[in-house]
Amino acid sequence: MTLKAPKVRISTPTEPILPGRGFYQLEEDSLYVQIGPFSKKRRFFSYLESENVRFDIDRQGRLIFIEVVVAKRHWNVEPGLFPPTVVEAADIRWLNFRARVGNPILVSAGNGTLLLLRFRNSTMLRNYYLAESVVAQVDENNKLAAVWITDIGDDRAGQKIAAFRKKMRGKPEPFS
């Protein structure tokens, strides 16, 4: 079954906004986006995927990782692209599991530090943090319209993402 866009459930936040950011793997021409720490409570359980994007989800329906397998040089460029300025905290749970989703349109501002994954065009959007540098845009039917990754750094041999994960290991786990 192919979904045009994933559906989410939005509730009052139950934990602080998680750390998260994008790491562009230069050798693989892929973007890895870590959402919060991996732990016994936050382990891979299921996924949503398209040809070029994969969302990894834990047992509770929380997003834990995004992988984009399209090289930066193939991202569409829109100069003057800016992420939303009003973003709310929320507890977002993904409702579809092991499903295919439509390929999002990948749009960058051109410098490679910002990526918009656009699943659908909609005028009535609400913006929610998935992590500090990752924002979900949801339409009036709670379907995912877009995901913004606003802090992408180049990484070689996974060194920066490994350092990011190590840094998160020492922090106390959110109270979920």
Descriptive report:
6% of the residues lie in helices and 40% in strands. It is globular. It has one helix and 16 strands. The N and C termini lie far apart (31 Å). The mean pLDDT is 90. It has one helix at residues 159-169; strands spanning 2-3, 8-11, 20-25, 30-35, 46-49, 53-57, 63-68, 76-77, 91-94, 99-101, 105-108, 115-118, 126-131, 134-138, 144-149, 152-155. The chain has one domain (2-169). With 176 residues, the chain is mainly β. Strands 1-10-5-6-7-4-3-16 form an eight-stranded mixed β-sheet, covered by helices on one side. A six-stranded mixed β-sheet has the order 8-11-12-15-14-13, with no helix packed on it. The protein has a two-stranded antiparallel sheet with strand order 2-9.
Write a short abstract of this structure:
By secondary structure, this protein is mostly beta strands. It contains one helix and 16 strands. The strands form three sheets. Strands 1-10-5-6-7-4-3-16 form an eight-stranded mixed sheet, with helices on one face. A six-stranded mixed sheet has the order 8-11-12-15-14-13, with no helix packed on it. It has a two-stranded antiparallel sheet with strand order 2-9.
**Uncertain stretches of 5 or more adjacent residues:** none
The global form is: globular
Helix fraction bin = under 10%
**How many β-strand runs?**
16
Bin the strand percentage. Answer: 35-45%
Number of helical runs? 1
Global Rg: 15 Å
Provide the structure class: mainly beta
Q: Distance between termini?
A: 31 Å
- Which H/E pattern describes the elements? EEEEEEEEEEEEEEEEH
The largest sheet is: 8 strands, mixed
The overall average pLDDT, rounded, is: 90
Q: How are the strands of the biggest sheet laid out side by side?
A: 1-10-5-6-7-4-3-16
Q: How many structurally independent domains?
A: 1
